[in-house]
Each structure stands twice: as structure tokens, then as C-alpha cells.
Amino acid sequence: MNYWLVKQEPSAYSWEQLVKDGGTFWDGVRNYQARNNLQAMKKGDLVLFYHSVVGKEIKGIAKVTKEAYPDPTSDDSNWVVVDLKPAKAFNKSVTLEEIKANSKLKDIALIKQSRLSVMPLKEVEFKTLLKMGDTPYSGR
């Protein structure tokens, strides 16, 4: 299993909207590195959902339910989407300030490549963030 983090402005699409919808395809990615990360996602991978700009916090865990396929919002075949469904809300949101203050997360892409919208996480980073969010999760 692989671990990921996706970023979205809550005014564009929030964690709460994902929960209400029961799932979505993750569209609008127009950065090649982020696109490559989408292409690397496998069914069952776990994805942390981060509110950017407003809030700047991890809100929950999503699961990849369908691997990369052409982005239906684009005529350009270079762009792809994956399907995500909500798995579990964080019991306590984890803020960017808290992430930056944790020495175990000093190399996390969220800090090192702050403009990247889809990024991989190491298992230790994922588990550290779950612990910070007081959110036990087995991945099932």
C-alpha cells in the first residue's frame, strides 16, 4: 500500500463535500509531477485530504477506488484523474503549523514542495500524521 496527500481549497471542494458526495474523481491537476503521482496511485492506497489556503489542515483519510484514467474535464489526454472515497474523518485536524513543528515531518513534501497538489507520503509520515490527528486507522 502507498500513502498520499492531496490538497484542495475548501471553497473549491472540501472534505465535507467529499463526505456528502460519498466519493469523487480527483480532477483539475495540471502539473506534471502531480499527474505522475496520480498515475502511481493504486486501488486501496490511502490519501490524506488537506485543506489549502483556508484552514491549512488535514481533515481526513480517503481511499483510492479507481486508478488513473483520462480526466473527463480536459480535452488533453496528458491529464488523468483517480476516484477517491472518504474513509475516515480525522478526530482532530492537523494544521500546517503543527506539521512544520514536528521533526519527524521535516522532509514531508507538503513543506518541501508546498505548491504540489498531489504528493507521496512515507509510511512513517502517514502514521505520524494519524497520531497527531488522534485518528487510529487500520486501512480497511
TrEMBL record:
<dbReference type="Pfam" id="PF01878">
    <property type="entry name" value="EVE"/>
</dbReference>
<dbReference type="InterPro" id="IPR052181">
    <property type="entry name" value="5hmC_binding"/>
</dbReference>
<dbReference type="InterPro" id="IPR002740">
    <property type="entry name" value="EVE_domain"/>
</dbReference>
<protein>
    <recommendedName>
        <fullName>EVE domain-containing protein</fullName>
    </recommendedName>
</protein>
<dbReference type="InterPro" id="IPR047197">
    <property type="entry name" value="THYN1-like_EVE"/>
</dbReference>
<dbReference type="InterPro" id="IPR015947">
    <property type="entry name" value="PUA-like_sf"/>
</dbReference>
<feature type="domain" description="EVE">
    <location>
        <begin position="2"/>
        <end position="132"/>
    </location>
</feature>
